[in-house]
Amino acid sequence: ALVPLRVVLDHAAENDYGVAAFNVNNMEQIQAIMEAADETDSPAIIQASRGARAYSQDAYLRHLMQAAAELYPHIPVVMHQDHGNSVATCLSAIENNFTSVMMDGSLEEDGKTPASFEYNVRVTKEVVKLAHARGVSVEGELGVLGSLESGEGEQEDGHGAVGQLTHDQLLTDPEEAAQFVEATGVDALAVAIGTSHGAYKFSRKPDGEVLAMKQIEAIHARLPNTHLVMHGSSSVPQELQDIINKYGGKMKQTYGVPVEEIQRGIKSGVRKINVDTDCRMAITGAIRKVLLESPEKFDPRDYLKPARQAMKEVCVARMTAFGQAGNA
Ligand code: G3H
Ligand code: 13P
Ligand code: NA
Ligand code: ZN
């Protein structure tokens, strides 16, 4: 059944686990997540960005999600708007059966300019009022996602940098976080700790300087009852980079967020972990392999089935590592 995010994260907090939130743009990605959830007996969070909604069209997405709920009635499924940029985006998501919305007021509506605390509170509070009246959960974000390595912030869609930011802007302040949660009433809070979207997060295996897990611990100490969200949390596994490059791809060597660091976060209040890039890489690697090894094939199912299977394996691995398995 489709359920609000809050229900799933409350259960996760009571039982000390985290829940992966996977991004989708099409049927096969939804199928991969649902198969993984069914196999591991996990709750599922399926999220669509604004770009995903535009690509898949709201009506297709709405009915695909309805199909997922119908096929797996025993699995709690959250349908979440990832990085809503305005009250209007969040409202149109709610009208399309989303059970949870993110109001990302860390940036202004253009998705580029770091927003003031006051702006963020105002728009997030407005979304909370509208969403809660309809039983829909709200995720807010405080602090700009971006690299502590380069000092570059990024746009809310992960494409391109917003430019140079100070170290402080790239880290969520615990005291401000407490004020923000109090003022807005959000159900979950996304925090900035040095992660960024996409494959190119770190130029070497991250240490505490560039991946500030300590900041999570400080925020959790100040806000022990708030569900924290980690964005940009793909692990960018070496084996997926290798598969892509082995079969004709050209990805530069890169490092993501190690699963052990996420597990450490889960001990400190992290309840929702956003993963998109790892799924994209699994899909692309599988498709490249089929097309390179079997150039005579042209039935899309010949490569979409292995692609779906490869994404499912990533989902099973994360669901197991984050502890959501067995908790459907
Ligand atoms: O926010 C980043 C997610 O990975 C979604 O990406 O905006 O390209 O759909 P997207
Ligand atoms: P990744 O690019 O690390 O998968 O992050 C996804 C994300 O944060 C979506 O909001
Ligand atoms: Na989100
Ligand atoms: Zn994100």
Task: Characterise this structure.
It catalyses: beta-D-fructose 1,6-bisphosphate = D-glyceraldehyde 3-phosphate + dihydroxyacetone phosphate. Zn(2+) 2 binds at residues 104, 141. This protein has 328 residues and is of the alpha/beta class. It has a single domain (5-241, 253-277), classed as TIM Barrel, CATH 3.20.20.70. 45% of the residues lie in helices and 15% in strands. It has helices spanning 5-14, 27-40, 50-56, 58-71, 87-95, 117-132, 174-184, 213-222, 238-246, 259-266, 277-293, 300-322; strands spanning 19-23, 44-48, 77-84, 100-103, 137-142, 152-154, 161-164, 188-191, 227-230, 270-275. The strands form two sheets. Strands 1-2-3-4-5-8-9-10 form an eight-stranded parallel beta barrel, surrounded by ten helices. Strands 6-7 form a two-stranded antiparallel sheet. The radius of gyration is 19 Å and the shape is globular. The mean pLDDT is 97. Sodium ion binds next to strand 3. 1,3-dihydroxyacetonephosphate binds next to strand 3 and strand 10.
